[in-house]
Amino acid sequence: MPPSSLIAPSPAGPPPSDPPPSDPALPALFVPPGPLLVAGRPLALLPGLTLRAGEVLHLHGPNGAGKTTLLRALAGEQAGVEGARIAGDVPGSRTARAATAWVSTDAPLPDDLNAGEFLHFTAALWSRPAGPLLALAGTLGLDRWLDAWPQDLSRGTRQKVALSAALGLGLPLTLLDEPFGTLDTAARAALLRAIQARAQAGGALIVTTHGDELAPLRPRTLTLDVA
Ligand SMILES: Nc1ncnc2c1ncn2[C@@H]1O[C@H](COP(=O)(O)OP(=O)(O)OP(=O)(O)O)[C@@H](O)[C@H]1O
Known about the structure:
The chain is an alpha/beta fold and 227 residues long.
């Protein structure tokens, strides 16, 4: 199984190689107004949110506001949002997991696959061509690292592998938690282009960042603050 922090399936979930078809008329994401719960307690108040194909949402707010918590909940890794729907189904469901790619701030990679094998494995698991994942890896400067093992890669390089896999899959919803933080200057520009391309191809994305890297894309914004 791929690491749960890269691809939304829960660790015990089945590989979504044959996902049920989702209705393209449904929004990629719907969240009703309500509290964001942490350990059963309200942390922040979420406004109603509908994210459709092609939209980029910049999620920001102070440390501890709940940005990572919200993304983890949408990825199905923990409870936290009541009534949310991804591709029409609840976060963590097979349909939602099949529609969602998720990259945490320190995405783990399996230690028994080199970077290139991981990209091929991820594409195969999702019944997708590996070409887009490898092409993205190239634009992020990964070509010379494809034969390297995760334990021999820097933190930023590992993050590039995870981002190449997630964005290259071309899933309806992509969740990226502070994806620019560990990247070099060239890779940050390449990542911005990749996010733009994913949106132009019909993907919806939520990206957390404390900076203004997304400004050229004129994204929607959502500010979380502790209630
Ligand atoms: N499982 C948990 N149990 C209790 N509290 C938690 C749990 N997970 C997170 N928290 C708390 O919930 C709050 C939100 O954390 P979260 O990591 O979502 O914030 P964030 O907005 O992503 O912050 P940052 O900008 O620092 O990354 C923090 O106060 C954190 O300590």
